[in-house]
Each structure stands twice: as structure tokens, then as C-alpha cells.
Amino acid sequence: MPLTNPQIRKLKALGQRLEPVLVLGRNGVSEAFVKSLNEALDQHELIKIKFGDFKDQKKILAPQLAEKSLSHLVQRVGNTALLYREQPAPERRKITF
């Protein structure tokens, strides 16, 4: 289900204070990177990814990462992307709308 505009605004505001959790380096979108991405989303719900060596491909890679991790691409600004995945169990959710 897509995010509503108020939800996107709240996630963007929360994401401004975040430091990048993952950096997409020279190995690219490998299985290990996707596994780390999923683990980070399980722990934090909202994460920031920095495009290190793939700055020229960020427009293509950001939606692909969201698709592979079953998350929402909230925004892409500069060389970073903000991804959100809601926890399935309501008691584990850190972000409420």
C-alpha cells in the first residue's frame, strides 16, 4: 500500500536527523548488501543509504533497493536515499502515524 502525503512528510522530517546506516560501495547491490539492508530495516524501520561508488546510478538503484527489500522509497536527495518498511507486528513499530 502506498504511503500517504502526511506519512511521507513525517518520514522525511524524521529522516533529516538520521546518519546513513549503509554505504553502497564498490561491490554494488550484492546479496550481502541486500541482506544487510533487510536487517537494518528490521531493526530501524527508517534508514538512510549513502551511494558511495555508484553516485551516477543512484536514480536507478534507489527504486531497485526499495523493491528488493520490500520497502518504500521515501525520498532521494543528493547521494542518499531514505527507505521505510513498516514492522508487521504493531507492538514492534517504532514510528506511528
Describe what you observe in this structure.
The chain has 97 residues and is α+β, with helices and mostly antiparallel strands. It has a single domain, classed as 2-Layer Sandwich (Translation Initiation Factor IF3), CATH 3.30.110.60. It has three helices and four strands, in the order αβαβαββ. It has helices spanning 5-15, 31-44, 58-68; strands spanning 22-24, 46-51, 72-77, 80-84. The chain has a four-stranded mixed β-sheet with strand order 1-2-4-3, sandwiched between helices. Strand 1, helix 2 and strand 2 (46-51) form a beta-alpha-beta unit. The longest helix has 14 residues, at 31-44. The protein is globular, with a radius of gyration of 13 Å. The model has no long low-confidence stretch (mean pLDDT 92).
Average per-residue pLDDT, rounded, comes to: 92
CATH topology: Translation Initiation Factor IF3
Q: Please indicate the count of domains.
A: 1
Percentage of β-strand residues: 15-25%
Largest sheet composition? 4 strands, mixed
So, CATH architecture? Answer: 2-Layer Sandwich
Number of strands: 4
Helix content: 25-40%
- Rg, Cα atoms, Å: 13 Å
Please report the first level of CATH classification, the CATH class. Answer: Alpha Beta
Treating each run of at least 4 consecutive H or I residues as one helix, how many helices? Answer: 3
Shape call:
globular
The neighbouring-strand order within the major sheet is 1-2-4-3
CATH homologous superfamily grouping: YhbY-like
